Every structure is written in C-alpha cells, then in structure tokens.
Amino acid sequence: xxxxxxxxxxxxxxxxxxxxxxxxxxxxxxxxxxxxxxxxxxxxxxxxxxxxxxxxxxxxxxxxxxxxxxxxxxxxxxxxxxxxxxxxxxxxxxxxxxxxxxxxxxxxxxxxxxxxxxxxxxxxxxxxxxxxxxxxxxxxxxxxxxxxxxxxxxxxxxxxxxxxxxxxxxxxxxxxxxxxxxxxxxxxxxxxxxxxxxxxxxxxxxxxxxxxxxxxxxxxxxxxxxxxxxx
Length: 231
Description:
Elements: H1 2-22, E1 29-40, E2 44-55, H2 58-78, E3 86-88, E4 92-98, E5 106-120, H3 126-136, E6 140-147, H4 151-176, E7 181-188, E8 197-199, E9 202-203, H5 211-214, E10 218-230
Antiparallel strand pairs: 1-10, 2-5, 2-6, 3-5, 4-5, 6-8, 6-9, 7-10
C-alpha cells in the first residue's frame, strides 16, 4: 500500500513539474504587467425604482401598486421613452403579521411591491424621469447607475495605455540590467469588466440633485501581462 502511495505521489509530482516547465521559458526573460486607465464622463444612466404599499387586503394592495406603476409607465411613454428602455417586474405580494408575546401571530395586512427599471439615453433627462416617478407615487429608488454609451471605445484606450505601460517597464528594466529586448514570448490578457457609477439607494422624499451625477466620472481600467525574451 505504501508503495502504491509513493508511486502516485511521484506521478503527481512529475505531472505538476512538467506543467510548470511547459509554462516557463528556458531562456533569459523578464515579465511585466502593464496598467492603463481612462477617465470617462457618463452620458447615460439606468435606474430602478420601486413602489411599496401596505393595506388591509391583498386586493387593495395589488390595486394600489398596479395603479402607481401604470401611471408611471404611461407618463414615461408620453415623454418619448421607448418601451424597450422600460422593464417592469411582476407583483410581489406578502402577508404581514403581528407577533404578540403570547398567542398566535395575527394577520394585520398585506404588502405589495413592484419594481420598474428605466434606461436613460440622455443623461440630462434623468432628474425629469425621477420627478415623474415621484409624482406617480413611486416611493423608493433602488439604485442609479451612470454609464457611457460606447464602453468599448474607452476600454480600447485603456488597453493601449496598458500595453504602452508594459513596454516602457520592460525597456527600462532591460536597460537597467544591461540587456536588450529580443521580442515578446507570451501575452496574457483578461479584459476587466467596466463598473458603472452606482448612486446609493434613497427614499423618494429626498430629491436627487443633478450635481450628484452630472459631475461624476468613471475610471475604466485595463491590464496586460507580458513575458519578453532578452537578447
């Protein structure tokens, strides 16, 4: 049994060693990581709002929530918001109970809620749409995400900066050690995801000031790892 275990250990060690050797060049080389970032100003947004109502009966709660959502959607369409830029969720309905110290739980009403998400292609209209939500009876903002319409363009700029950074580092290191770069042996790249600017959740009784998003900026980053062969 000990011989079998020793054999398995030897085989596994050999496999790991072979894998490491296969990914390690057998010539003089240096590895660098290049980083790049671009500052972009958001030009669009997505926001999610919710209406929550609690009433004595399930029918009343549903009716109240559905009316608020219907009024909100109707007004958005009047303002020219395309139906493809609006997404409303199904009704969520749950009973509400009071739990006395002694005795059984008591049903005290029903809570209903629905969520509506809107894509805003013109950032300057964001406050206008939030005002419409407030006037329709929406009572909660889940989040506001500020974005750019052409993220690939900014990502490409950040990638170019990352490549430039990797090359500059490699040239500086090689020169510092009295070497010259012979060429690129390996490039590793995994594009990072672009993170939107997310505003905090808030109650609809506190209006969102335009300065909180119109002056915001997004940092779009990229990275590339390169192995250079030395001459």
